[in-house]
Design brief:
A six-stranded mixed beta sheet has the order 3-4-5-6-7-8, sandwiched between helices. A two-stranded antiparallel ribbon has the order 1-2. It has three helices and eight strands, in the order ββαβββαβββα. The protein is an alpha+beta fold.
């Protein structure tokens, strides 16, 4: 079975993690009003000589990374190691928001100074742009 990734504009294998990623892309577009044109999936980058891939990156209108989303299979618990993984990504991407989801549970963190603190809801795209 395959799914259509609207960000990469290709058919992708419907693995459990990919199903979560595609569900969340749809949530970002439909619920949080993130423009499809300001998101990318499976974004590769290097950190400490290693190659990494962010599941979803949301950009601001100037094309700067605004939010990184880390997706996991539904049975994967969102533990401290998952948060640390997203924090490593942030060392390169310098985002304002980090979202972690396994399709059952979703956590959002907002950068405040040099650290991230949890938020109780995901703001829509316009609110993300306005939050400092």
């Amino acid at each position: 079975m395959t799914l259509r990734d609207p960000l990469r504009r290709i058919e992708v294998t419907a693995t459990p993690e990919e199903q979560v990623r595609q569900w969340f892309i749809n949530e970002l577009v439909q619920t949080f009003k993130v423009p499809v044109t300001l998101m990318m999936s499976e974004v590769g980058f290097k950190f400490g000589g290693k190659q990494y891939r962010a599941d979803i990156l949301i950009y601001d209108r100037a094309g700067e990374p605004l939010c990184v989303v880390e997706c996991k299979r539904p049975e994967v618990k969102l533990t401290a190691s998952v948060i640390e993984q997203a924090m490593r990504y942030n060392a390169v991407l310098s985002v304002r928001f980090i979202i972690l989801t396994n399709g059952n549970i979703t956590y959002l963190y907002r950068r405040k100074g040099d650290r991230f603190e949890p938020m109780d809801h995901i703001p829509d795209y316009e609110q993300m742009l306005c939050r400092q």
